[in-house]
Amino acid sequence: MNRESQDHKAFVKAKFDRIVRRYDLVNSLGSFYQDYFWRKRVARLFKGAEGPFLDLCSGPFTLSFEILKENSSQLFALDLSLEMLLYGKTKASPLQKYLFPLRGDAERLPFKDKTFGALSIAFGLRNLPDRVRALQEFYRVLKKEGLLVILEFSMPKSPLLRYPYLLYLKYGLSFLGGLLTGDKEAYLYLASSIQKFPPPEEIHRLLEKVGFKKVLLKSLTFGVVTLYAYQK
Q1: 169 Cβ contact partners less than 8 Å away, ≥ 6 residues apart
Q2: How far is the C-alpha of 148 from the C-alpha of 146, rounded, in Å?
Q3: If you count Cβ atoms within 10 Å of the first and of the last residue's Cβ in the chain, which end, N or C, has fewer?
């Protein structure tokens, strides 16, 4: 891993460690409660999947629990931030018994080949410096015909929505996030990382190059989020 990648991951980890207690609240308020429906769309894809599952960049298990509501298989929740994982463990849920938290790097997964029947990553691919390596790792740990589900921010294609959305990210969301968490810089980074993230068409090409086959590629909420479902 080069120094630039190390520095980037250290920065992201520090920001997530700092905002952990208000992370879910800002996500819900900042998305006008659309995040609930986005997670539901992901979780439904796991309904008939074979376990065990892996939820990457899991944060405090917000998506993990939604997946387990649909399919109570063994689920490993991996995140770079120990603070996120510890906070997730404080959530009272009968589903905790199916969940196994693990601190780790999504670009270097500590699992054997062909371990998981399905893998999810919500709003985490954007934060990984080496996306090709990450996708290759996802492919490696999935079983044959295993399911990969990615939920990630994207930019609306329509200029009528694109520019107001950019203004909202830079000023509205950063103000809200800064007010509630005390770390405005974390949400300025969020706005910047969304702008820099490749469009869905480019991510699709990367997934196919690694060896995945498209099951579903869908724009949600006027294009501010994209849902990718691909099969090994």
Answers
A1: 190, 191, 194, 195
A2: 7
A3: N
Apex 59 CA angle, 30 and 137, nearest 5: 120
Distance in angstroms (rounded) separating the CA atoms of residues 198 and 177: 24
109 backbone dihedrals φ, ψ, rounded to 5° = -75, 130
Q: What is the radius of gyration, based on Cα positions, of the chain?
A: 17
Residue 91, judged by CB atoms within 10 A of its CB (0-12, 13-18, 19+), counts as middle
CA-to-CA dists, residue 224 to 95, 197, 199, angstroms: 30, 12, 11
How many degrees, rounded to 5, is the angle at CA 207 between CA 166 and CA 108?
Answer: 90
Phi, psi of 67 (to 5 degrees): -65, -45
161: phi then psi, degrees, rounded to nearest 5:
-100, -35
Q: Which run of H or E residues covers position 76?
A: strand 75-79
Per-residue pLDDT reduced to its tens digit, 58-87: 999 999 999 999 999 999 999 999 999 999
Q: What is the CB neighbour count within 10 angstroms for residue 63?
A: 28
pLDDT at 3 exceeding the cut of 70:
no
**DSSP 8-state class, residue 199:** P
Please name the amino acid found at residue 219. S
Type of residue numbered 109: L
Closest CA to 81 of 99, 60, 51: 60
* Residue type at 150 in one-letter notation: I
- Summarised one tens digit per residue, pLDDT across range 36-59 is 999 999 999 999 899 999 999 999
Enter the DSSP assignment of 198: P
d(CA 18, CA 168): 22
